[in-house]
Amino acid sequence: MSDSSSAASPDQPGRGLPFRLLPALVAAAYAAGIWQLSSRTFQSQGSSVFWSLVSNLFHYPLFGGLAVVLAECQRRPRPSSRRAMVTVVILVLAYGIIDELHQASTPGRHPDPADVATDVLGAIGFLSLWWGVRQRVEWKITLRRFVGVSLVATVAVCLQVLRG
């Protein structure tokens, strides 16, 4: 009879994979979806400021979602460390840069460093919400952090779009 308790499990710290497999697969699929969106040339809605705002603000939840699934890859029964969250933000930053470089080779698209900044703010904002839920931080504090980062991202995108 084999002892199943000695088998490595990806969900136990220090044993098995250094990440959780299912969230890692979700993160890979999510990143592939972002790549697919970046490969498309969207019909222009004219030079409308509204559509410029919408398309640039879309980076915030899109890359925020990527940050959350990456954070889930690292989650263990013990609380997540700040170091793990910094790692996720760095991964989102790296993928945001790669995504913008990819857009440079896509007809009708162009890379924009401001999009990378919005990607990182999305990661920080959504991670603050995720962290608050996972760590059972008081809701007012969690929402205040999320809304604060969201407002910074919105103002930054508005300034970027308005300056042209």
What do these coordinates show?
The chain has 164 residues and is mostly helical. The chain has one domain (49-163). 69% of the residues lie in helices and 0% in strands. It has six helices and no strands. α2 (49-57) packs across α6 (139-163) and α5 runs antiparallel to α6. The model is unreliable at 1-14 (pLDDT under 50).
* Beta fraction: under 5%
Number of strands: 0
Q: Structural class of the secondary elements?
A: mainly alpha
So what's the overall shape? globular
**End-to-end gap:** 70 Å
**Radius of gyration, taken over Cα atoms and rounded to an integer in Å:** 18 Å
Question: What profile does the largest beta sheet have?
Answer: none
Task: Enumerate how many helices there are, as a single number.
Answer: 6
Percent in helix: 55-70%
- Helices and strands, in N-to-C order? HHHHHH
Low-confidence sequence ranges: 1-14
Number of domains: 1
Mean of residue pLDDT?
A: 83
Sequence-ordered SSE layout with sheet pairings:
Layout: H1 21-38, H2 49-57, H3 59-74, H4 82-104, H5 113-134, H6 139-163
Helix pairs in contact: 1-3, 1-4, 2-6, 3-4, 3-5, 4-5, 5-6
Tags for this model:
single chain, 164 residues, mainly alpha, 69% helix
